[in-house]
């Protein structure tokens, strides 16, 4: 299958790529990705570039925790935590497995991650958008991230402050590890 994907990495994209699933600091307790490759569909990459351009004059950079997630990786996450509130059922397909979703946060000018009230992949109701039982600073930071991402054309997932995806994500094909130019798993 010919994929229309783009590698997300400096210098083409001024982002901090810190793929959680390439480390053991994730819900599986081990690396899911053997190779820390960050990919997005070309249309998602263009919207990411727009978000980067919106964040830059405000003194912020984006930190990417995950982007394209091969179908095999989606199964690995589902097998550890089959909770459809936080992990898409791989039988239906995840926007991540289509290359049209990104998990991310914001960094300040010193490269420190902004307080978002929970960490990435905190599978708790406190991770939902619109929470008022987190600090006012974390609420502002989440709204800042949402403003940047939605202004750049992304849709948000209400249960995860870190997850953004393209509208109509299901129209994009699912991507297996063997489809990638350089395998991740």
UniProtKB/TrEMBL annotation:
Residue positions annotated to bind Zn(2+) are: 96, 103, 163
Q: What is its EC number?
A: 3.4.13.22
Q: Which cofactor does it need?
A: Zn(2+)
From which domain of life does this come?
Answer: Bacteria
Q: Which InterPro entries has this protein been placed in?
A: A_A_dipeptidase
Q: Where is the active site?
A: 160
Tell me the GO molecular function terms: D-Ala-D-Ala dipeptidase activity
Which Pfam families does this UniProt record tie to the protein? Peptidase_M15
The protein's UniProt keywords, in alphabetical order, are: Cell wall biogenesis/degradation, Dipeptidase, Hydrolase, Metal-binding, Metalloprotease, Protease, Zinc
The note on the cofactor says:
Binds 1 zinc ion per subunit.
Catalyses which reaction(s)? D-alanyl-D-alanine + H2O = 2 D-alanine
Instruction: Give residue numbers for the site Transition state stabilizer.
Output: 69
The record's annotation in NCBIfam families points to: PRK10178.1 (NF007557)
Family in the record: Belongs to the peptidase M15D family.
* Matches recorded under PANTHER family: D-ALANYL-D-ALANINE DIPEPTIDASE
Its function? Catalyzes hydrolysis of the D-alanyl-D-alanine dipeptide.
Protein name listed in UniProt? D-alanyl-D-alanine dipeptidase
Gene name, per UniProt, is ddpX
